[in-house]
Design a protein that fits this description.
heterotrimer, A mainly alpha, B mainly alpha, C alpha+beta, A: mainly alpha, MetI-like fold, 2 domains, 13 helices, 0% strand, C: alpha+beta, D-Maltodextrin-Binding Protein, domain 2, Dipeptide-binding Protein, domain 1, Dipeptide-binding Protein, domain 3, 3 domains, twelve-stranded mixed sheet, four-stranded antiparallel sheet, 16 helices, 22 strands, 30% helix, MetI-like (chain B)
């Protein structure tokens, strides 16, 4: 197991190197550089030359890359060009918000996905089954931003049940500690903060999690159907166990494995989904930071965000592999 | 030659699983086929179905609510949304098919090369695939489109690249499996060359996962293209592309919700259709892929 | 049974989450907080080092300049200086500063401290010299001139409350430029404390003090009770960042915010039909148009350019896409002095357009390209693509086939400003300092010394008679005389038709009706927020 972990962690390095090359050269290939975007439709040629020179953009790209890589190896991610704040600081502000959102979306996806999937599998071909599967199919087929806009409009606008975006009510005098208001509220024991951040997170979590929820529900349903037909379940039933107990104790556990795989895969998709969700719901997270910095060609910031996101993805998948071992005793990593 | 016979036999058996009777007994496939046929029909007969020119502007009749003359209402340019949605079907289909084709082609090349040659080549290609997977896909698509310049064809290329790793992985897995089978070993033993072996023996046997994967992803590609349009990186105006109609219509959500609603529904229905077909094919052809995106 | 209860718990939690929503926003607050929704975040709050609107919005509440714009106007009035004199040759500006004013950090404001701050704009040996800092976007050379060109202003501290600037050449626009929010005066102590970069810890003398900024979420400012212009009538201003316009509108309707910094035309009617809301409009100091390549293709011929102007129905587009919130353009914003009242916009006249095209040798029209971008700009709230679509549709009717290509904004700037493009391109401009030279000169003048178009003359307009008028106007101190020169230039510009002159977008904001004393300013900033109250 330790050997396996070490090997996988060693693989992290080439993947991140590849990601850094891709993002660096990709960003520099986009026409219109950061100097041009800083000046917008104003400024003179002299300004442009000055800024390019100050930022070293007039040097060959590979030299810029080597310098950037050198910085990273020393733990220096550089300074955002647009805001002149350290990249690490900018990411530190945004990351907790996105982590909180992603986890909430994941919880929503897994809980409701399993619930729907298991119920549908228990009563296959019933109206419940068909209905929920159609609903789930709709969920997986909606563009995330469209789901978001509709949720916001209906629950925030027309019904007025939930807030219209943001992470927390501005009047609560919330002071950030970890940056994730939900956690901060729990730490400081402020129920007002906890309540407010819960209310703020419901809609974005549903919007962001709906695709994953649909995938989990479909997966759970089909594996449950498979598992329910297997010998040991029949044995359990033959022993006279209540159906409910058969489902929850024996079948569900076995159905969890593919769901865990799926969750690992979906984690990588969440940040991309967060780009759109955070824009719709005005959340100050990593997704929005990513898109604004790509559009502004804030090279150091884009590089930092993408590297962090890639590292999170790789590590999350590693965790999933580790989790396998506990869920399925048959799996061993040498 | 005996080996070739076996291959033919096996392949035809696999494809026999695709008999029309079995397909049409599968309810979700049928539902999906009906929807997609409808979309294809709308695309094919757009000039006959659409009451108006999809790009003809008339500031005298702008922002009209749905009525008999304009069943889906009009947009801020006074264009008939029903006509635009109908013509939009052409674009959605092209987007889905071309982006899918790009992803499948690149994925098959990567996957087959990786799986067939193994070792260093495999290690290198799979690390590349890992890199692409680890890269947040929407940002990857954004960067690709930004480099190439926003246009529909470039959006398709970007989405195609984004989905390539998934195809590559599935194909590689299938190739690895096929490679171990007796008939391939046998063909190699009688001295068949790599290319011949790939073309005659390996490719036909990995077709079904590719077909299943491709139908399952068409819908998502249409959705992702809409996402790029949301970010202003989609089709050039005045193309009646559903994603950009939805994206630009969202500022009218409070005052003229029909502008965004109907293209949104069109995307939803089309994607549901493709996903239903995909589900059906998967059940019949390759149950192993169940639940994957 | 035990297992069932798990599901029950889940369902209960889910229901509970929804139920929390009924609680509504938490209780009453003791102080008066004004929330202003803006579409994007600021990128820093050190006036001399940023140029984007959102930073400007926030900075205009924190800082004073040596002179300020008068409330609701682009005319210059007293700021940190109570009064000033200009020498007859137009080169020497002397300012008498206010007594007893302190920066928010307690540093006294006087000629020495103001000079300390402005020194970093003009003195290359200042350790915090702005132009030497990495990737800084500044108006300093625009206002004070450039050290490299030897056009930089000289600054002297005459006595504790007198500051004098001497310019190498007379420059009438200097005073207007000095009033810009980009020339707000930062406490030199703050600049020193934060190692030349107080952009995250701004300290000014203005009506509001900086409290905190959370990236992409909000900026909080508290009233400065000692403000020299009177104590602000609200206790706190929060700028809240909300990217989606529909969300902003809903927030205003729900009283979660009280002012919207930008309202897209699609929401005007909704704001007007709501009795709790008020829509504010003011002719903007902006221009919007479709640039033509004056030196390439059919557009070399002035008649073709005029034909394009006749071919497009500006009023219909104004009504249709901008909800009537723009004024058709003849080349210069009507709110700007020097505007020639005798010149009116090109009328919509298809026959005339066709005749001019035939005269120029294009009886059957021609095919060309148009570059557009998707995002909205200050001078174009609906974005370039929609305007392009509308114009394309009109041009088809006179036989011009236009192929539209959409570029992402950065790529657009790169192509539009640095490559010899041919055809049409959506363009526009927001005024910087409220001087006519900032429109007629920046956008349409030829740089005689360098033998090419000035940087922002992207349509490559070139007319020596026009250039002479502009040069003379810059060297004239007599306001009436300047005005006449600009009026003549305006006429020439209209006839040359370097762009399809589209319109001047109104500045449109919305607020709750209980917001009183709120005035728009042509420069689009939130000046004089100390006058705003919440009833």
């Amino acid at each position: 197991m330790l050997k396996f972990l070490r090997r996988r962690l060693l693989q992290l390095a080439p993947v991140l190197l590849g990601v850094s090359i891709l993002v660096f050269f990709g960003m520099h290939l986009i026409p219109g550089d950061v100097a041009q975007l800083l000046l917008g439709d104003k400024g003179t040629d002299a300004d442009l030359q000055r800024i390019r020179h100050q930022l070293g953009l007039d040097r060959p790209v590979y030299i810029q890359y080597v310098r950037f890589l050198g910085g990273i190896l020393h733990g220096d991610f550089g300074v955002s060009i647009r805001t002149r704040q350290p990249v690490i600081w900018e990411i530190g502000q945004a990351l907790p918000v996105t982590v909180q959102l992603s986890l909430a979306a994941l919880v929503f996806a897994v809980v409701f996905g399993l619930l729907i999937g298991v119920l549908a599998a228990r009563y296959p071909r019933s109206a419940l089954d068909t209905g929920s599967m159609v609903g789930v199919l709709v969920g997986v087929s909606m563009p995330v931003f469209w789901t978001g806009i509709l949720l916001l409009l209906v629950f925030g606008g027309i019904l007025g049940w939930l807030p219209l975006g943001g992470i927390i009510d501005g009047n609560l005098g919330y002071r950030r500690m970890t940056g994730a208001p939900l956690l901060d509220g729990l730490i400081s024991g402020s129920w007002a903060v906890v309540g407010s951040s819960l209310r703020h997170i419901v809609l974005p979590a549903v919007a962001l999690g709906s695709t994953a929820m649909a995938a989990v529900a479909r997966m759970a349903r089909s594996t449950m159907l498979d598992v329910l037909g297997l010998d040991f379940i029949r044995t359990a039933r033959a022993k006279g166990l209540a159906e409910r107990r058969v489902v929850s104790r024996h079948a569900l556990r076995n159905a969890l494995l593919p769901v865990v795989t799926l969750v690992g895969l979906q984690l990588g998709l969440l940040l991309s989904g967060a780009v759109l969700t955070e824009t719709i719901f005005a959340l100050p997270g990593l997704g929005r930071l990513a898109i604004t910095s790509v559009l502004a060609r804030d090279y150091p910031l884009v590089q930092g965000v993408v590297l962090i996101a890639a590292a999170v993805f790789v590590v999350a998948n590693l965790l999933v592999d580790v989790l396998y071992v506990y869920l399925d005793p048959r799996i061993r990593y040498e | 030659m005996a080996t070739a016979g076996t291959v033919a036999l096996r392949t035809s058996r696999r494809l026999a699983a695709l008999s029309w009777r079995r397909l049409f007994a599968h309810s979700s496939f049928v539902a999906g086929a009906i929807i997609v046929t409808g979309v294809v029909a709308a695309a094919a007969f757009a000039p006959a179905l659409a009451p108006f020119d999809p790009i003809e502007q008339a500031f005298t009749s702008q922002l009209l609510a749905p009525s008999r003359a304009h069943p889906f209402g009009t947009d801020e340019f006074g264009r008939d949304i029903f006509s635009r949605v109908i013509y939009g079907a052409r674009i959605a289909l092209v987007v889905g098919v071309v982006a899918d084709g790009i992803a499948a082609l690149l994925g098959v090349v990567l996957g087959v090369v990786s799986g067939y040659f193994g070792r260093r080549v495999d290690a290198f290609l799979m690390r590349t695939v890992d890199v692409l997977l680890a890269f947040p896909y929407l940002l990857l698509a954004m960067i690709v489109v930004a480099i190439l310049g926003p246009s529909l064809i470039n959006a398709m290329i970007a989405i195609g690249i984004v989905y390539t790793p998934q195809f590559a992985r599935v194909v590689r897995g299938a190739v690895l499996q096929v490679k171990e089978e007796d008939f391939v070993e046998a063909a190699r033993a009688v001295g068949a060359g790599s290319l011949r072996l790939l073309a005659r023996h390996v490719l036909p046997n990995i077709l079904s996962p590719i077909i299943v994967m491709a139908t399952l992803t068409v819908g998502f590609m249409i959705v992702e293209t809409a996402g790029l349009s949301f970010l202003g990186l989609g089709a050039s105006p005045p193309t009646p592309e559903w994603g950009s109609m939805l994206a630009t219509g969202r500022s009218f959500m409070l005052t003229a919700p029909w502008i965004a609603t109907f293209p949104g529904l069109a995307i939803l229905i089309t994607v549901v259709g493709f996903n239903l077909i995909g589900d059906g094919l998967r059940d019949l052809l390759d149950p192993r892929l169940r639940g994957s995106r | 049974m035990k297992r069932v209860s798990h599901w029950l718990v889940l369902v209960t939690v889910a229901a509970g989450l929804l139920a929390l929503g009924y609680g509504g926003p938490a209780g009453a607050q003791p102080q008066k907080t004004l929330v202003i929704a803006i579409g994007a975040d600021q990128t820093g709050l050190d006036p001399q080092t940023v140029q984007n609107n959102e930073s400007g919005f926030v900075m205009s509440t924190i800082f004073d300049s040596v002179v300020n714009y008068k409330p609701g106007s682009s005319e210059v009035g007293p700021g940190l200086a109570e009064s000033w004199t200009v020498s007859p040759d137009g080169k020497v500006f002397t300012f008498k500063l206010r007594r007893g004013v302190k920066f928010h950090d307690g540093t006294p404001m006087n000629a020495r401290t103001v000079a300390d701050d402005l020194d970093r704009a003009i003195n290359p040996n200042n350790p915090c010299y702005v132009l030497a800092r990495k990737g800084v976007d500044t108006y300093d050379d625009f206002t004070f001139g450039s050290v490299t060109d030897n056009t930089v202003a000289k600054m002297d501290v005459v006595d504790e409350y007198t500051l004098r600037f001497t310019l190498p050449d007379p420059s009438a626009p200097f005073l207007s430029s000095l009033a810009m929010t980009w020339q707000g005066i930062m406490s030199p102590a703050a600049t020193k404390q934060y190692n030349c970069d107080a952009s995250q810890h701004p300290v000014g003398t203005g009506p509001f003090k900086f409290v905190e900024a959370v990236r992409n979420d909000h900026i909080t400012l508290d009233a400065n009770p000692d403000y020299w212009g009177g104590r602000p009538k609200v206790d706190r201003i929060i700028f809240k960042i909300v990217p989606e316009s529909a969300t902003r509108m809903l927030m205003l309707e729900r009283n979660e915010v009280q002012i919207l910094a930008d309202v897209p035309p699609s929401d005007y009617a909704r704001a007007q039909n709501n009795k709790a809301l008020q829509l504010y409009r003011q002719p903007g100091l902006t221009i919007l148009g479709v640039a033509m390549s004056n030196d390439l293709g059919p557009f070399k011929d002035r008649r073709v350019r005029q034909a394009m102007n006749y071919a497009v129905d500006k009023d219909a587009i104004n009504q249709g896409l901008y909800a009537g919130a723009t004024t058709a353009s003849q080349g210069m914003p009507p709110v700007l002095w020097g505007y020639n009242k005798g010149v009116s916009p090109y009328a919509y006249d298809v026959a005339k357009a066709k005749a001019l095209l035939a005269e120029a040798g294009f009886p059957n029209g021609f095919s060309t390209e148009m570059m557009v971008y998707a995002n909205p700009r200050g001078y174009n709230p609906i974005g370039g693509a929609k305007l392009g679509e509308a114009v394309q549709s009109y041009l088809t009717k006179v036989g011009i086939n236009v192929k539209i290509t959409q570029y992402e904004w950065g790529a657009y700037l790169d192509r539009f400003r640095h490559q010899p493009w041919e055809g049409f391109a959506i363009t526009g401009w927001s005024g910087d300092n409220g001087d006519p030279d900032n429109f007629l000169g920046d956008l349409f003048e030829w740089d005689i010394a360098k033998g090419r178009a000035r940087t922002n003359n992207t349509s490559r307009h070139h007319n020596p008679a026009y250039d002479r008028l502009l040069r003379d106007a810059r060297r004239t101190t007599d306001q009436t005389k300047r005005e006449q020169l600009y009026e003549q230039a305006n006429k020439l510009l209209h006839d040359d038709a370097p762009w399809i002159f589209m319109n001047h977008t109104n500045q449109v904001r919305a607020a709750r009706v209980n917001v009183k004393g709120f005035l728009l300013n042509p420069l689009q900033m939130f000046f004089h927020m100390e006058l705003v109250s919440l009833e």
